[in-house]
Amino acid sequence: MSRRQWVIDLAALTVGAPFARARAETFPSHVITLWVPWAAGGATDISLRVLAELASRHLGQRVITENRAGAGGTLAMPILQQAEPDGYTIAQLPQPIFHAYFTQKVTWHPINDVTPIIQVSGVTFGLLVEPGSPFKTFDDLIAFARARPGELSIATNGVGTSPHLALEEIFTSRGLSYIHVPYKGVSEQVNAVAAGQVMAGVSSTGFGPAVDAGKLRLLAVFSARRSRRWPDVPTLKDLGYDIVAQSPFGIGGPRGMPENIVSILHDCFRKAVSDPIFGQELAKYDQEVDYLGPAEYAQSRRALFAKERAYVEKLKLARDGAR
């Protein structure tokens, strides 16, 4: 490096550092947008709207939510990739982004293009039918698939989501087939199952209010233990399937966000996550707060990334050229 270039670089650093500090000191000075990669009206969307409202009280600026549904919950990633790392564009980070990176051609990286802020909660899943369905148990559904190949229709909240992968493992490992019907979000998927438009559905526990109201019947849950809310419903492990499907999620921003801005956002969202109002909202969907700070959340996400890579390789689902 020439002496002239060294002087230019030093000057840039000297001028840039106070500028970065000044920006952080005034943060936030206007509205922050939290992108939700699911359709409006679903459990995740509603709970994140509550969280955004609570965080706004601590930030002194509004946090608004915007929806960008589709592609299995991955459509907030291009927004983060293209956004300035100034703290004003953040997004929910669902687990399907890890799977999509290995199975689809995407321009973003779920680790390298994200600054983790806070892990919020996690969802588990259940298999549902409408109340008048002839399927009374999970085994009834499997027996139908065996007797009538290719006729069983099952909805999920998108291609490559945890419910979809769990179904693939259950059915393909037993030489069975089914018709996969992906939806953009939980709310429209649940409505389709309740209306009999599909024969069954696997969804996150956003289905809780519909099950409690008798609009849906729950045949199995995909969690490690039975739900305290529906203790008579078996887990897949109870039924002999060595499958647990859970999906932690949190909030992140574009890569390169300054640590002090991350700290401001984390502290305010942690207060919001800890608010009893948010806990009550999660409880409607049989969820609990599962908090991790920035460093721990980053470590957890790296572990999930490695686990997803191994899972995709095991099932031979990786796209050509996937790393």
Task: Characterise this structure.
It is a single chain. By secondary structure, the protein is an alpha/beta fold. The chain is 41% helix and 19% strand. The chain is built from eleven helices and ten strands. It has helices at residues 3-25, 43-59, 77-82, 96-103, 138-147, 162-172, 186-194, 208-212, 259-273, 276-283, 294-314, and strands at 32-36, 63-67, 89-93, 114-129, 153-156, 179-182, 200-204, 217-221, 246-254, 289-292. Mean pLDDT is 89; it is low at 1-23.
Point out poorly predicted stretches.
1-23
Helix proportion: 40-55%
End-to-end span in angstroms? 34 Å
Rounded to the nearest angstrom, the radius of gyration is 22 Å
**Which structural class do the helices and strands define?**
alpha/beta
Query: How does the overall form come out from the CA principal axes?
Result: globular
Count of helices? 11
The sequence of SSEs as H and E is HEHEHEHEHEHEHEHEEHHEH
Number of E-state strands = 10
What portion of residues belong to β-strands? Answer: 15-25%
Task: Look at the structure and give the mean pLDDT.
Answer: 89
Major sheet description: 10 strands, mixed
